[in-house]
Amino acid sequence: xxxxxxxxxxxxxxxxxxxxxxxxxxxxxxxxxxxxxxxxxxxxxxxxxxxxxxxxxxxxxxxxxxxxxxxxxxxxxxxxxxxxxxxxxxxxxxxxxxxxxxxxxxxxxxxxxxxxxxxxxxxxxxxxxxxxxxxxxxxxxxxxxxxxxxxxxxxxxxxxxxxxxxxxxxxxxxxxxxxxxxxxxxxxxxxxxxxxxxxxxxxxxxxxxxxxxxxxxxxxxxxxxxxxxxxxxxxxxxxxxxxxxxxxxxxxxxxxxxxxxx
Length: 262
Fold this sequence. Notes:
The chain is of the alpha+beta class. The protein folds into two domains: 8-74, Arc Repressor Mutant, subunit A, CATH 1.10.10; 81-255, Beta-Lactamase. The protein has nine helices and nine strands. The strands form two sheets. The chain has a six-stranded antiparallel sheet with strand order 6-5-4-9-8-7, sandwiched between helices. A three-stranded antiparallel sheet has the order 1-3-2. Strand 4 and strand 5 form a beta hairpin. The longest helix is centred in the middle third of the chain and has 31 residues, at 76-106. Residues 77-258 form the IclR-ED domain.
């Protein structure tokens, strides 16, 4: 049985064009970076005409690109998707033990997120098993400008970047305390960037978030501590939690190659 074969009972569920397209992408490797249409047809034991529409679709989607009249290589979309996945996976693997330890020290829930367009995408949670806790499932997407994690992620952008990102989004469609205009958002993120952390209250809970930096010093992810207001209210409690959060973020960033001294 080859890598693309499935048990006979499953053959009715196959999508032949999709199967063939993925098989074409699998033909490329470190030793064979460029393949002609005839090479692909020969490997798959089909005619070039049978591959033409599939190859053209892969080109249009950016998964293949032409390097000659009838020669192709893997396109930028493969690279983008692959590195995005690996980067997210690396951050989760590095952050997981640190966030679990932070949860155990504070008895508060911790979350890790990255930015996708204007959303904060939750990649990991260290859930605190207490009666009143904040528990946002992995895979949840929330608007960046309305959450502590999201606002930290937006600090990676300057005013021009924020303007470009939000030029087609109506901020006044979102309820307060989220900013209602682009200038208000830009001013808020500028203060967040200078402070290095964000506190946000909603629905009887409080979240404190800060950024994770990569080897270039860029904010690539954010982590938070979140819990009921009764636990997190007060300057002493917040200072204690903020110190623990900063220590956790520094440990994760260091493992990603960030050096504060550099």
